[in-house]
Amino acid sequence: MYKGQIEALAREDGAARVAGVEVWLGALCHISAGHFRAHFERETAGTLAEGAELSLVVSDDPRHPQAQDIVLRSVSLES
């Protein structure tokens, strides 16, 4: 779910930890915000992103060009 991408960004930057992550959920991505949050918490356990604040932006526009996508918008790192 982006765990590898987030971990790679943190390691590239020499970050001590990931402070926050923002993810956009398309209206047709077939996962609820709550379900995504549970997966995120489980997948980041024991990584640099464990305990990171997860900000979810949920679209309600099924006609959006990325309506079926889950998009990693930003990652905040701490040194």
The chain-level mean pLDDT equals 94
In terms of quaternary structure, what is this?
single chain
Order of helices and strands: HEHEE
The total of beta strands comes to 3
Please outline the major beta sheet: 3 strands, mixed
- Proportion of β residues? 25-35%
Helix content: 25-40%
* Radius of gyration computed on alpha carbons: 13 Å
Broad shape:
elongated
In whole angstroms, the N-to-C terminal distance is: 24 Å
How are the strands ordered across the major sheet? 2-1-3
Q: What low-confidence regions span 5 or more consecutive residues with pLDDT below 50?
A: none
The tally of helices reads 2
Classification by helices and strands: alpha+beta
Summarize, please.
Helices cover 29% and strands 30% of the residues. The chain has 79 residues and is an alpha+beta fold.
Describe the structure.
This protein is of the alpha+beta class and 79 residues long. Helix content is 29%, strand content 30%. The protein is built from 2 helices and 3 strands, in the order αβαββ. The chain has helices spanning 3-13, 33-44; strands spanning 17-25, 53-58, 70-78. A 3-stranded mixed sheet has the order 2-1-3. Helix 2 (33-44) links the parallel strand 1 (17-25) and strand 2 (53-58). The longest helix has 12 residues, at 33-44.
